[in-house]
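ugh ok so i messed up the first submission bc i forgot one of the chains. this is the corrected input, ALL of the components this time, i swear. 657 residues overall. if the numbers dont match what u have on ur side tell me asap before i send this to the collaborators (the ones from the other lab, u know who)
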Amino acid sequence: MSHLLEVKNLDVKFDTDEGRITAVENISLSVDQGEVLGIVGESGSGKSVTAKSIMKLNPGNTSYNEDAEIILDNENVLQFTSKQDLKKIRGGKVSMIFQEPMASFAPAIKIGAQMVEQLLIHKNINKDEAKSISINMLKRVGIADAEKRFNQYAFELSGGMRQRAMIAMALSTMPKLLLADEPTTALDVTIQAQVINLIKDIIKEYQMGVIFITHDLGVIAQVADHVAVMYLGSVVEKGPVNEILKNPKHPYTKGLLQALPDINNLDAPLSPIPGNIPSPLDRPTGCVFRTRCPHHNPEGKDGKIEMKLIEVEPGHWVDQCGIKCGQNG
Amino acid sequence: MGNNLISVNNVSVNFDYQENFISKKQKIHAVNNINIKIQKGSFFGLVGESGSGKTTLGRAILGANKISSGNVIFHDDERDYDLTNMNKQDLKEYRKKAQLIFQDPYAALSPRMTVRDIIAEPLEVMKITNSRQETDERVRDIASKCRLNIEHLRRFPHAFSGGQRQRISIARALVSNPKFIVADESVAALDVSIQADILNLLKQLQTELNLTYLFISHDLSVVAHVCDVVAVMYLGHIVEMGPSRQLFKNPKHSYTKALLSSIPSIDPEKRSQAIELKGEIPSALNPPPGCVFRTRCPNPGIDCKGGEIKMGLTEVEPGHWVDQCCAL
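and heres the new structure output, hopefully the right one now
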């Protein structure tokens, strides 16, 4: 069976004044229908850049490598250049939910007008139909007084409500793939729990594929089926969520789990990962994690081992340098 | 008194609010009738969602917000400072002793000043040191305590990562040798791997320099890990307060219970046992009468539904206080 989305050997580079920055290197991922792929990683790990590549939303100074492929529904998105083609993916087959709902709604246009506008672009329907679809969607995501909210501006809604409206807007075009970029990070925990449950229900109902980006491993454990752990533009470990969180192999994944305060185990010390994330301008050669790796093996330390994922258990892939280091600690 | 460093007595903070110039003036009840005692050398946690008044309370204790009623007493070795009744000289003295660490280390540091100047600024403003040499000595001393390299002092903040910047902010807060620190969401903007490092640093500095913290955070797991005493705030009121382990093991208030259950579990097999709270935090312009939580409470009693029970803490176990509405 072919996947809904398949990303193969993707490199993303940005040309800046200080030189060419490698934001993402050699990433391969796949998402099936009705499946949630979680991408975890700290700031600067390339999670959002990867997601934006799928919609070709990266800025003009971006270059992709020649042999990369992003196959969505049997078409290579990276070869799309015409506005017509891009329109098909942006908001059509793929929708995105952003972190900061206040920044993603236009402040001076009513929420309803924004929802109707995108429906008119992507669907062959008239204004009244678009309005009724939008209001139904607002009701579906649990917004009370949907008719009233339809005629309000983003600033009149609270944070949780805005994020619900954002979700309603993203879903109203019935995309096949939903990109959720830190959708719950700006929310309070109680609201976060509501939004996570809502997203889970909706995925089940509409059977769409989802890429869920977050830095919070707890959220990943709650929503994802598969996980890819990213560090400095590379996937260092990927596999089923249970495997990754309960049986992590890469020292970075282990480090992340140990650094996380666990409310059920207050006696465990908090162990930070030593050092700082290197600047993407001087990205280490070989294993990207070696400058902070607590257990580096001698070969990995020199940067002689190339990054390459190896399948250690069915479906569980770990970077080859990380396997060796992981065994040491 | 004795062991307390800060006593907050019946403190309320109200803000005036006027929607536009013809509408009626209203009052926002940001903080209502708060009583807390912060012991010397303790790590006092304040948790709650956005809009619960935690930052306002923290700022009120620092004298940065006007206190509408009640008072805050800072018990120093020689004398007590009453924050509501302080002259300029006293306020200057108090500022040396109580400092704030901000949330966002990117916004808190001036991009045009070197790290040395940033850390030295409080010393110069408060006229604590007399010569440049003395200033430099203090700066170097505190920088090394905060694990900053001496050669970093000549650089500008843009050269640093989030974790390093937060260490610079901590060094600046500590350079005047304060006794009391308000850390307002000081790890919220950091990555997990760095967050643990900063928390460990705060703990270490606490023992080294005899500090007392008021740690404001929305992240319960972080608070549970570092704090000795925790107060949970909701809509300007403290709804539960007690020793942190006792409170997290045996929460009494429905809001605390809901908050705890909302933390996403790291175990994929334990999916969603969150007690879902309906709706959102009500506006502080017009809080519900009686128990402020009753509009969202998953299991309100008959009495509190009507809003007949007033807010007020009762002691259910030694040191463990719960709002009376839920304690019943």
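quick check: The radius of gyration of chain B is 21 Å. that seems consistent at least. Chain B has a mean pLDDT of 89.
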